[in-house]
Amino acid sequence: MQRSINDFKSNAAVILKSFNAEYTKTPLRIKVIDAFMVYALLTAAVQFLYMLCVGTFPFNSFLSGFFCSVGFFVLSVSLRMQVDPSSDEFKGLLPERAYADFVLCGCLLFLVVWNFMG
Amino acid sequence: MRHICVEFWGAILLLLSVSLHVSDASEVITSHDTKGIKDIVLSNAGSSGDFGASLKDAYFGSGALALLGATDKLQKGAVCGLASSKLASEAADLEAAFYASQIQGLAGCGDAKAAATAEKLAVASLEAGVRDMRSAYYALSTLAALGRTAPAKALDSALALLQKLKASKGRLRDTPKGAASLTATAHGYLAAAAAQKVGTISSQHMPAVEGLLSGIPQVLETVGGSSFFSDADTDALEAVARFVQGIESTCSDECSLDKLQLGQLAKMLARAKSAISVQDAYYVLSASSLLTTSAKLPKPVTISLQSASVPLSSPEVDVVVQEFGGNPAAVSGVEGSISKGSKGNAKPIKFVFQGQGSYKASLTGLDISLGIYRLIVAATEGNSKVEVASSTFAIALTGSVEVTEVTLTVKGTDTSTVKNKKSLAYPSKLDKKLDMDPNSQLKVTFAATFPGIAQAFTPQQAFISLKSRASGALVLVAAKASQSSPNDYSATFGPTTIVKQIGTQAGLFDVTLTIGDEALAEALVWRLGAVSVSHAPAGEGTAAPTQPPPTAAQLEAARKPPIQHMFRQPDKRPPAVVSLAFAALSATPLLFLLVRLSQIGINLKGFPSGSGATYAVAFHGGLASILEAAE
After folding, report:
1. Which distant-in-sequence residues (6+ apart) come within 8 Å of B38 by Cβ?
2. Which of B572, B582, B596 sits opposite A46 (nearest CB)?
3. N or C: which end of chain A has fewer CB within 10 A?
4. Partners of B453 in the β-ladder
5. B87-108: per-residue pLDDT in tens?
């Protein structure tokens, strides 16, 4: 049992080390987006935790806040996919264009959320 | 073609007939109205009988009394004296001559001097040349009434006016209002008729006179239009009356008048119900009597129902067909049909002549039951059965109801225990009151039969009523028919029924069985006796009521309790410290973001400089403003 735990720890350390080594090669622009994605996820997690601990009241506000965070995360993922230079999927798409789409969708998301919040 | 016209007359021109019942008549002149008209004339005549020294009123009043057959009420000396004195005065004119000559004819004055003065005025007027049709009529009619003749030359000016009638295809159109136009036309007819009496009409004027006859249908078509008379035509009655007089005097044979047009005229005459002057009275009496007695126009036939209630045991309908004035009408047959309401299946019925205008029809074998029916009766004439009159009546086929026995059963509220049971034969009543305590209820059962009716019949009302002897308050309980046997009825009630309707009133109540229907000749009301009602006592320790319990009406009118608004309970909220803690917690990711961004070395080195900086600031400022506006 103790051995399997030690194996897990050593494997995890190897994975993390390898991940950090590779992540340092990631362009700065992608790292900024990643930071925003983690920020969005953490915010959603805090709200979800509040819902578990306290309750959903006021329900509209909870849904608005939670889905705003999730929505922002999804849009950020989309932006990341479109501006990632290692991806061939959106090769012909300018980063400015991807950013403009992100901004437009973000505005729309915040508008809907604000109206739904009540 | 004639029957609709006759229908109108049957409904409207009952001016002098005696209380004939005609259905579907929106406007009926009754004998009461006739009496009213007579009263108006006599009151205008005054005690001296000279109609307030008004020659015009004397003329119309004398004519009206003559038409009413009340010439004995006419004070001939007074009106003759009035006519003579007016003609003797210097102010006498053609109109006065006309009125005076007519009065002389009606009252038989025999004043030669006055007659000569009138003739002189009329001839002078004709020789001077009459300007309008009314003057022509007055002049020629004066001479005709006096039995004088007029020189051919004097006739020329009056007859020349008839050319106008011919030129305008029958009706003068140079008058602004419909009624005045029609009056002028009618005066033309009357003038032509008078001209034939007072002289020889030259060949020059004959086409104009003959043209009048051919123009009558066209005039009728115009007059019959709904928009011809307006409400502002206050002299419409004069126009119609003179027009009828003109037709009557001009037509040499029966005029081919359109029934609808004549109906329109008859409707106009019906306004006589509001006659307030002697003039109105004369016009309506004159026109209606001419319409109904002249052989040149079809006579109205009225159909009256002898009884609107027919017992189903001997279902026979009697109608009387009469002419105006009450004489039996000479019709060849009477037909009819009966239906349940206006949309029901009409079943033909055959009337048999009984003599004196009376016809009888049997309804036996028509498979009809009790109720209100629509009866249409039509009188026909000739072999081709031309309908000359038709009337619609509502008749009630009535029957009787019988209840031979009533059973009153006092049961426990569980309906299984019979505490008391009494049977009564009609019309006996309970010799001893029944007790109805809070745990019991009374059931009243009876069988209602309708003798002579084969079909099932459900009366409109079948109920038990309980009347409190103390307060007079009434409790009504409907009796329900059994589904298996429609004639068996039952009504069940208890103290709770009484409480619902009049409150907790106890004591003796009189029980009455009532069965009624509009088709029943007489309702059945059977007083069954009395029941003693008691209610459940109030809870132990409750104070006795200081006043009688309120009735249902009092409860209805009593002040209602104030409305208590119900609000949703607010949701449970967490303690403020928890909410604040989570608010702080939700801000921690922002700290992470800032730390992380600083870690990865984010900077603004790539931010445009120069003019590009302006655009970049404007772009980000725009975004910020959008988000701010959204919030």
Report:
1. B65, B68, B70
2. B582
3. N
4. none
5. 888 778 888 889 888 888 888 8
Burial grade of B557 (CB within 10 A; 0-12, 13-18, 19 or more):
exposed
ipTM of the complex: 0.90
3-state secondary structure (DSSP) of residue B348: strand
Residue B61, class by beta-carbon neighbours within 10 Å (0-12 exposed, 13-18 middle, 19+ buried)? buried
Determine the 3-state secondary structure of B389 from DSSP: strand
Substitution target in B569, B595, B596 with the highest count of A β-carbons within 10 Å is B596
CA distance B338 to B374: 6
Instruction: Name the fold adopted by B301-398.
Output: Immunoglobulin-like (2.60.40)
The closest of B333, B336, B302, B330 to B316, measured between CA atoms, is B336
- Specify whether the CB–CB gap between B408 and B444 falls below 8 A: yes
Element (H, E) at A90: none
Instruction: Check A39 against B589: CB less than 8 A apart.
Output: yes
Position A20 in a domain: no
Backbone angles phi, psi at B552, to 5 degrees: -60, -40
The phi, psi pair for B490, rounded to 5°, reads -150, 150
pLDDT in tens, B538-570: 666 665 555 666 677 777 888 888 999 999 888
Nearest CA in chain B to A28: B600
**Alpha carbon distances (Å) from B444 to B201, B285, B462, B468:** 92, 64, 12, 18
CATH of domain B402-537+548-557: 2.60.40.10
Whole-model pTM: value is 0.41
Structural domain harbouring A43: 27-117
Locate B13 and state its tokens. Answer: 């021109």
